[in-house]
Amino acid sequence: MHALAPITPMTAVSLFDGIARWTAPNPGFMTGEGTNAYLIGRERLTLIDPGPVLEENLSALLNFLDDRLERILVTHTHKDHCPMAMVLADKTQVPVIGPLSPSTSENDPNFIPDEVLVDRRELDCDGITVEAIHTPGHASNHFCFWIAQHGVLLTGDHVMNGSTVVIAAPDGDMLDYLNSLRAMLTLPLQAIAPGHGAVIDNPKENIAGIIAHRLQREAKVIDALLRCQPCTLDELLPVVYDDVDPNLLPIARYSLAAHVDKLKREGRVNRSEVLALIPETA
């Protein structure tokens, strides 16, 4: 079964008819077993998210592709997903389609697509229709790719298997993230192929669980503010994330800030650096 297909770096692992996974050898705390690229097609191939520039991976991928590459797609421009797109395109002379890169540190400033990706763009990938769906949240320019004939959604970093998605300001946005997740639930999903980790076979249950987890964390933010306001973000952090390894608190701070920003946008928390709940009016 595709869900049991092992994560094997620098090897094309077949998941569905005309869909294979290729994992970059960049394992780590934030990338899991590595960044997953996806190969769509049977004879002419579309490559999604080729990953960081690693010479060994580039050489192996070029050898596998053997002049069969037709185009490169990119879900978003974070540096573990897209830098090799420009290098590979230069060597193969194929077009790159992806979003514009925001000018923040986590994005690749060298990524310049031949075609700027737009919501609901459909591409014929060797007989397989791939539809781009704008899913902001983890990044403002994030897209997922929907393959209706298999019921498979390629989610980049919007949904990952085995780790929580970091929502980091100023480009990440918790309200957008939750709304994008809810929009995913309207699709007839059969599986999720994530940017990190194995295929997810219970996609709707998984997405509903992510939404519930984020809302539970938000409830802890509100409860903590009721008990200790006014307070700063750093004073709030160990209270809201009292169930997290203290060594992970610097990373958790990004998501806490995203939760607080969401509550500010909704008019539930004041916009000062010293945080307090805004009293509800009758």
Describe this structure in a few short sentences.
With 282 residues, this protein is an alpha/beta fold.
Structure overview:
The chain has 6 helices and 12 strands. The chain has 282 residues and is an alpha/beta fold. The strands form 2 sheets. It has a 7-stranded mixed β-sheet. A 5-stranded mixed β-sheet has the order 8-9-10-11-12, with no helix packed on it. α2 links the parallel β5 and β6. α3 packs antiparallel against α4. The protein is elongated, with a radius of gyration of 20 Å.
The low-pLDDT segments are none
Number of helical segments with 4 or more residues: 6
Topology, number of strands: 12
Shape: elongated
Describe the sheet with the most strands: 7 strands, mixed
Strands of the biggest beta sheet: in what spatial order?
1-2-3-4-5-6-7
> In percent, how much strand structure appears in the residues?
15-25%
